[in-house]
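Retry 2 of 3 after timeout on previous attempt. Resubmitting structure tokens to design endpoint.
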């Protein structure tokens, strides 16, 4: 038995101050997405991401300066412990910065015409993770004051932090402005509006709030295609939007809502 569903409109999450309205292909009044607001929200997240990255790398620099005796902070603490603390703090600030950067790129995606720029822009966090952790590994291995055991411990922790930061920063599902515009056109052509739906654990967006994929969902979210992309939902449901799938696909296949 299908559960009774509650539809939640997520427009308020974007904190739009000036709502704009227009008409869809069928003449229905719909809420238009504020492109300028999306760019501003993305810009704010990117600035915050950069600030967090700078703070993260600053902890690495402090650790290196302490290691090389350029500064004498917390001299009552051994260098190994100090370095480990710096690496951990580096990671704590670095990951949120990367998550914010990826979120911003889904709110305001760039063009993929330049493939190299597209990849670098979407995975800047992964590139910077090398800068945030590799130098301290090099300095530790080259240092003559640390014993072999300390070098092994610090290097292992820094390498692990580099791996965690690199993977968490990598965007496995980058969004391009072209893909978003195409998805908006396709959804509007099918349903006559830019409105789509998804559940808490959805992997795809839907145009039908009564799609069988929602049979076990008590709460579903309503928003625009752009908002679905912002939540990392970039694929349409094959059940309620079969037009957007290849003819050989079986629409009766099990659907992840």
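Retry 2 succeeded. Sequence:
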């Amino acid at each position: 038995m299908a559960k009774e569903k509650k539809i939640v409109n997520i427009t308020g999450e974007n904190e739009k101050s000036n709502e704009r309205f227009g008409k869809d292909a069928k003449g229905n009044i719909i809420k238009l997405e504020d492109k300028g607001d999306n760019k501003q929200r993305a810009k704010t997240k990117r600035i915050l991401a950069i600030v967090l990255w700078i703070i993260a790398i600053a902890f690495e620099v402090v650790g290196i300066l302490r290691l090389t005796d350029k500064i004498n902070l917390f001299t009552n603490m051994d260098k190994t412990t100090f370095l480990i603390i710096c690496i951990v703090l580096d990671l704590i600030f670095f990951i949120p910065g990367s998550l914010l950067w990826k979120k911003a790129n889904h709110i305001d995606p760039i063009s993929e015409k330049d493939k190299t720029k597209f990849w670098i822009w979407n995975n800047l966090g992964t590139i910077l993770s090398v800068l945030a952790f590799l130098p301290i590994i090099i300095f530790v291995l080259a240092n003559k004051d640390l014993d072999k055991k300390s070098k092994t411990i610090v290097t292992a922790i820094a390498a692990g932090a580099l791996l965690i930061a690199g993977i968490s920063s990598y965007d496995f599902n980058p969004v391009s402005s072209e893909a978003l515009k195409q998805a908006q056109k396709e959804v509007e052509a099918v349903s006559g509006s830019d409105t789509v739906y998804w559940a808490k654990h959805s992997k795809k967006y839907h145009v039908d709030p009564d799609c069988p994929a929602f049979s076990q969902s008590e709460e579903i979210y309503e928003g625009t295609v752009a908002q679905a992309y912002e939540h990392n939902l970039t694929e349409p449901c094959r059940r309620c939007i079969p037009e957007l799938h290849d003819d050989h696909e079986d629409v009766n296949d099990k659907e992840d809502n």
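Attempt log closed. Residues 35-67 form the longest helix (33 residues).
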